[in-house]
Each structure stands twice: as structure tokens, then as C-alpha cells.
Amino acid sequence: MDITAPTADLAGRASEAATETAMARTLLTPRFYRTDYAAFDALDVTPVRAEWDEMMAEFEADANRHHFERDAEEYRAEIRDLPPDLRQEFLDLLVSSVTAEFSGCVLYSEIARNVENPEIKKLMRLMARDESRHAGFINTALKDFGLNVDLGALRRDKQYTYFGPKFIYYATYLSEKIGYARYITIFRQLERHPEKRFHPIFKWFESWCNDEYRHGEAFALLMRANPHLLQGRNKLWIRFFVLAVFATMYVRDHNRPLLHEAFGFTPDEYDMEVLRITSQITTQVFPLTLDLDHPRMKPRLDRLTRIMAGIDAAKAAGGPGSWLRRAGLSAAAAFTFAQMYCQRARPNALPARTLAAPVW
Ligand SMILES: [Fe+2]
Ligand SMILES: [Fe+2]
Fold first, then answer.
1. pTM higher than the cut 0.85
2. Domain annotation covers residue 213
């Protein structure tokens, strides 16, 4: 749908389309999760008590209490006109971001609602508070374009995926940290090139990403308090989740070439920087990191990107051959993923102290 000139009616239909996009459940769009709340209830933070209290003090100090307020007039004055294709990519980014933020909000508030453990309840409430601010701020930005993702409908109607608690720890930890790395990489780039800042929302990214960083710290401590999550066969799961999160981001970003060009870097430059930062951060908790410098790593990520584009094209083309073609390409994607999974990883000795400052 063309949403470059939203009249009242078009804006209404475009908002429906935005909500539908947010509702869609494909391999690459953010998902909504449910989990085993009893396992969260049973978590014991005693082994990391000192660092836990330090982190909770930061959550409670709530340095970003007033960060997500804006002077509407000043803010709107900074919104630049964009060519239609770039505008579409930017709006897609906002819709997928609001979904991701809201997905965190729903997960954390559901955990808070379903546990008695006071430590976990408090943490989840505070993280839900942050994510709800983030989602609200992006939704306000979408409203400036006549768009609105209906968060209530999303909460009610989007399909939920059940993830065991172990997988929530790995996947959520990674998504918080990669979220930090993404926001800070864009912020630093636009700090160096303010002329490329085509929308005011990017000015909010620096303090914003510290919230995401802190959310990641919470999961890092939960995992360090339960070291069995980081040993033995679980190392295979960690490797799987790191690769899945990295590859998903890489493929998705390469579908948005114009956005990266507008920021003044290629998707390659941006993604490799984000992956490097994230990988470096994860040394606080994961016993291994992927070898991003492996000569086969990037060519395989590129291959996966081409295969996924082929699947999209086959889907769009439809027709009798489409199913077969998609099946073949899906097998090729799985094979490429398996090849990357089998590449050597780097062992990592965990530091005595888990918490680390966001210094990027
Ligand atoms: Fe967030
Ligand atoms: Fe977060």
C-alpha cells in the first residue's frame, strides 16, 4: 500500500496495514512470547546478590524518566520530506521496532503478573515500564505520518510463540544487547554526520539504548546466577541462538538498502559493526563467541540473504512451481545455516564481574 500521502481515509487504511504488518508472523518479524512462569518464579539471584542490587538501584533510579518526552512542535519541524521508497523503509523500520518493543513489554508484564518471587516481579515490572515507554514513543512518531499500530489489538490478537525459559534467557538477552548495539551504532554515525539525520527520533537513541543495555544486564545476571545454563549441552543452544539472532538481523537489514544509504553506510558496514559490538558484549556471559572474522562467515550470510530474497520472490510470483521452488530454497537456507553453525567458535573464559559499562 502506498502511504506516502495519507489523507484521512488513506491514513485509516494505512494504519490497518501497519497493524497487519505488525501482526504478521514470518521468520523475520518480531514475535510475541509466552513462557513457563513457574521457572521464573523459582529463580534465585543469591549467587549474584551484590551485582544484582547494584543493577536494581540503577533501574529504580530511572535516569530516563523524562527522556521520552518531546516538544511536539520542535520535533515535527525536524521531520524531513523523504523520497517515497526511503520513507517506506523508514516506516517499516518503525513498525517492526514498535512491535519488538511492545513484544518485550508484553512478555515482561506477563512474567511480572504470573510470579510471586519479589525480585523477579520487581525486575519485570521495571523492564515492562521501559519497553512501554519505548513502544509509545515510536507509536507517537508513527502518528506524525498518519499511522498507528493498534497495540491493544496486537496484544489481543497476535499469535504467541511458546518458548521454554532457557530459550527466553538466551534469546531475550541477545535481542536486548543487539538492540543496544543497533541503536548506538546509528546514533554514533549520525553524531558524526548530523546532516544525515533525516528524522528527530534518532536523537533519542543514545539514552534509549542504555535501557536496552540494562535489560540485557538483567538476563546476564540471571544466567550467571544459574551457571548450568552456560555449560555442557547448553553451549550448543547458545551457539544456535547467537547465530539465529545474528543471521536474522543480517538478512532483514539487507532488505532495507535505502535506509542504510541514508545513514551513510552500507548494510554490510552497519551489520558487521553491530555484530562485533554484540559479540564483544556477550563475553560477559556466554562461554563462546562466533568467529565473525572466519573467511566463510560473511559469504555465507550473504548467501543466506540471497536465498531468503529468492523465497520472497517465489512467494510473490505464486503459481504451481512456487511451492516446489520455496521448498528447495528453504532446504538451501537450512543447509547454509547448518554450515555456519558448524564453523569453529571461540571459547571464552567468563570474567569475575558480570556487569560492564555500555562504552560503545
Ligand atoms: Fe526497548
Ligand atoms: Fe529492552
1. yes
2. yes
